[in-house]
Amino acid sequence: MNMSRARERLVVVGGDAAGMSAASQARRLRGPDELEIVAFERGHFTSYSACGIPYWVGGDVSERDRLIARTPEEHRARDIDLRLRTEVTELDPDGQRVRARDLESGEESWTSYDRLVIATGARPIRPDMPGADAAGVHGVQTLDDGQALLDTLEGTRGRRAVVVGAGYIGVEMAEALIKRGYEVTVVNRGSEPMSTLDPDMGRLVHEAMEGLGITMVNDAEVTKILTGEDGAVRAVVTEDREFPADVVVLGIGVRPETALAKAAGLPLGSHGGLLTDRSMRVRGHEDIWSGGDCVEVLDLVSGQERHVPLGTHANKHGQVIGTNVGGGYATFPGVVGTAVSKVCDLEIARTGLREKDAHRVGLRFEAVTIESTSRAGYYPNASAMTVKMLAEHRTGRLLGVQIVGREGAGKRVDIAAVALTAGMTVEQMTALDLGYAPPFSPVWDPVLVAARKAAAKVRGSV
Question: Which fold has domain 348-461?
Answer without folding.
Answer: Enolase-like; domain 1 (3.30.390)
